[in-house]
């Protein structure tokens, strides 16, 4: 696609194109088939040549107002009408409305005897007559090589075919000529030699019993075009071609945040969720609740009134709705309101690219703001192919600002299994769910391995799948690391009892202290009482001593008085 | 009662090839089907709608409409054996004559 943009930027007047209206094909051809020229559509039987040619004719009549002529050399008009009726094309109405003419050219080799020279003038006349009937701008010749089986004179036939294609060009009709794939050349009778403006090759490959249809533009004169092989899909909704090879990295990004649908999980991201338009990988072992996380995410999107497309590869929609009801998530109401659409298919139903094409078409048609792919590990195939497919899918989503939620089943208990590692580089956010086995039980633990553009918790968190959704449990981080489940509970109990024990012993110590304080205070009181007694005695003795002295002095004075004169 | 041969010769315009074909078919009819043929020469340019009805892709084409089976003899009818074979009038056609 980028090549085409480059070509457009070059400023050259582009070749006029006639859009086919086939999603994807117009993208890889840069607008459609060469207008007013013949294009060759070749491929082996059952490739969808007729259907693609027919679709471009019907679309031309319905969408682009260009009447068409189908000259069928193989199928009768009624058969054709019946074949495409399943796609919702009403050929009879188009014919009645003068938008389409079907001319069945029946060539029955057993009826034909060639005697002498001839030309194909009646074919020109028939075609011209049909074109004039409705003023056709588009012509399909399906499959003109049938002429070769009726007429053995190949040299004469070739000269006439060359003249026919020249005549078509002169008439200025956009012609699609289909051709059967031949050995060593594009078509069995080498008619690509005469149709040189645009050659599209269809291919139908079976690999591991799974068929993948592919389309390649071999040449497109005067126009740039996608050169890769593009997978395409034919189902009840017609033909769609997956145009993306590598969408480049020019998509606009958003800083909006989309909640994860699990409140506690939001809190693990610094921005409170995923960036809108980012790709999220949720990898986990069997039974870790990947689908429940997906359902939470889808449920949250629908609750916001946004559309969500849920690709389920392991469960039927009813089963998912029922199972999620047990987790307290009501998806049924979203299905009924049309916000949530399930697309269920077994992965083995198509090849990888067919799945991608189908998903791409569904995304384009439904226009969701979020998708869930549950799980991507269901895809079987070569690792590089799976990687390529997911890359394209992620790009499709990024281009449209769709938040994509992928789940992946890890096989080993090692959370980063080979497959996860392979795709993790495509993912902006990676959440890992693991089961921790300890003390005879399994506990679910999640962690955010990466989140581009925002910081995130590096905590491993235990979570429970409850009847009311997913609950994250406050992490227990102790001296022995993060504990979960019963071990966490046991550890918590142990801590509780230890704390209790500590409180008891503290109390005991306090009481002891009180007792000691009381006894010491008692002793202090006793001592103080003793001291006071001693002090009192000392005072008493002191007083006696003073009294005794006074008496002596008084006695001595009395004696002196008695002796008085004698001295 | 001889079987009636209903034949339609489709030509494209008045080319030499058309002329040759007309001459050839007239001669064959006069010689082999005297009195029991209904021949009509149709120019595809003037009657394009007949090309669809009679499933004509090449000119000249001689269509044997009756008796069945339907046969188309393409070319200027210069190879007499082929034409008689196509009209079931050749050596193998002898049986058809005998039965009528």
Brief synopsis:
The complex is a heterodimer of chains A (567) and B (100). In chain A, 40% of the residues lie in helices and 24% in strands.
Can you count the beta strands of chain A? 25
The CATH homologous superfamily of chain B corresponds to Glutaredoxin
Q: Structural class given helices, strands, pairing of chain B? A: alpha+beta
Shape of chain B: globular
The CATH architecture designation of chain B is 3-Layer(aba) Sandwich
Number of helices in the DSSP assignment of chain A = 16
CATH third-tier fold name of chain B: Glutaredoxin
Main β-sheet, spatial strand arrangement of chain B: 2-1-3-4
Largest interface: A-B, 24 and 34 residues
The 3D shape of chain A can be described as rod-shaped
Helix content of chain A: 40-55%
The number of helical runs of chain B is: 4
Major sheet of chain A: size, sense and barrel closure? 9 strands, mixed
Q: What proportion of the residues of chain A form beta strands (DSSP E)?
A: 15-25%
How are the strands ordered across the major sheet of chain A?
5-4-7-8-3-9-10-11-12
Biggest beta sheet summary of chain B: 4 strands, mixed
Mean pLDDT of chain B: 83
The overall number of domains of chain B is: 1
Distance between the termini of chain B: 7 Å
Q: Tell me how many strands of chain B there are.
A: 4
Oligomer: heterodimer
């Amino acid at each position: 696609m980028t090549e085409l943009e480059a070509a457009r930027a070059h400023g050259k007047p582009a070749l006029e194109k006639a859009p086919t209206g086939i999603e994807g094909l117009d993208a890889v051809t840069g607008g459609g088939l060469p207008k007013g020229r013949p294009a060759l559509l070749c491929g082996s039987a059952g490739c969808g040549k007729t259907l693609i040619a027919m679709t471009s004719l019907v679309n031309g009549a319905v969408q682009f107002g260009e009447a068409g002529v189908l000259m069928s050399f193989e199928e009768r008009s009624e058969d054709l009408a019946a074949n495409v009726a399943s796609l919702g094309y009403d050929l009879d109405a188009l014919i009645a409305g003068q938008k389409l003419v079907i001319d069945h050219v029946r060539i029955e080799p057993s009826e034909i005897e060639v005697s002498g020279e001839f030309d194909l003038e009646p074919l020109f006349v028939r075609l011209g007559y049909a074109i004039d009937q409705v003023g056709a701008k588009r012509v399909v010749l399906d499959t003109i090589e049938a002429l070769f089986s009726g007429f053995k004179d190949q040299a004469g036939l070739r000269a006439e075919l060359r003249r026919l294609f020249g005549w078509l060009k002169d008439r200025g009709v956009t012609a699609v000529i289909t051709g059967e794939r031949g050995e060593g050349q594009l078509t069995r009778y080498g008619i690509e030699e005469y149709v040189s403006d645009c050659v599209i090759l269809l291919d139908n490959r079976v690999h591991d019993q799974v068929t993948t249809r592919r389309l390649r533009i071999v040449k497109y004169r005067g126009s740039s075009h996608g050169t890769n092989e593009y997978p395409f899909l034919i189902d009840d909704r017609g033909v769609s071609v997956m145009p993306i090879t590598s969408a480049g990295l020019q998509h606009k990004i958003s800083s909006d945040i989309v909640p994860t649908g699990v409140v506690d999980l939001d809190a693990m991201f610094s921005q409170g969720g995923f960036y809108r338009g980012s790709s999220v990988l949720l990898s986990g072992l069997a039974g870790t609740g990947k689908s429940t996380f997906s359902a939470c995410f889808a449920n949250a999107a629908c609750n916001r009134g946004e559309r969500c497309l849920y690709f389920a590869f392991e469960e039927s929609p009813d089963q998912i709705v029922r199972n999620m009801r047990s987790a307290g998530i009501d998806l049924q109401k979203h299905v009924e309101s049309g916000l949530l659409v399930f697309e269920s298919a077994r992965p083995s139903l198509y090849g990888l690219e067919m799945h991608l094409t189908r998903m791409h078409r569904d995304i384009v048609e439904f226009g969701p703001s979020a998708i869930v792919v549950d799980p991507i590990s269901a895809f079987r195939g070569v690792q590089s192919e799976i990687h390529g497919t997911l890359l394209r899918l992620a790009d499709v989503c990024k281009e449209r600002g769709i938040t994509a939620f992928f789940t992946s089943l890890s096989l080993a208990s090692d959370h980063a299994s080979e497959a996860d590692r392979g795709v993790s580089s495509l993912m902006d956010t990676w959440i890992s769910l693991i089961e921790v086995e300890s003390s005879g039980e399994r506990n679910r633990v999640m962690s955010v391995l990466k989140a581009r553009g925002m910081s995130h918790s590096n905590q491993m968190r235990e979570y429970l799948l409850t009847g009311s959704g997913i609950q994250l449990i406050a992490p227990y981080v102790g001296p022995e690391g993060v504990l979960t489940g019963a071990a966490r509970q046991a550890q918590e109990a142990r801590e509780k009892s230890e704390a209790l024990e500590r409180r008891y012993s503290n109390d005991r110590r306090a009481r002891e202290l009180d007792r000691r304080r009381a006894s010491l205070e008692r002793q202090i009181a006793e001592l103080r009482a003793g001291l006071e007694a001693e002090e009192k005695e000392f005072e008493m003795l002191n007083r006696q001593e003073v009294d005794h002295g006074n008496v002596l002095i008084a006695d001595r004075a009395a004696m002196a008085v008695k002796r008085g004169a004698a001295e | 009662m001889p079987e009636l041969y209903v034949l339609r010769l489709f030509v494209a315009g008045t080319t030499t090839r058309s002329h040759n074909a007309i001459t050839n078919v007239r001669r064959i009819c006069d010689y082999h089907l005297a009195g029991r043929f209904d021949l009509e020469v149709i120019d595809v340019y003037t009657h394009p709608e007949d090309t669809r009805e009679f499933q004509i892709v090449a000119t000249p084409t001689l269509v044997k409409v009756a008796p069945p089976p339907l046969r188309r003899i393409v070319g200027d009818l210069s190879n007499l054996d082929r034409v008689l074979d196509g009209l079931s009038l050749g050596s193998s056609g002898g049986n058809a004559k005998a039965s009528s």
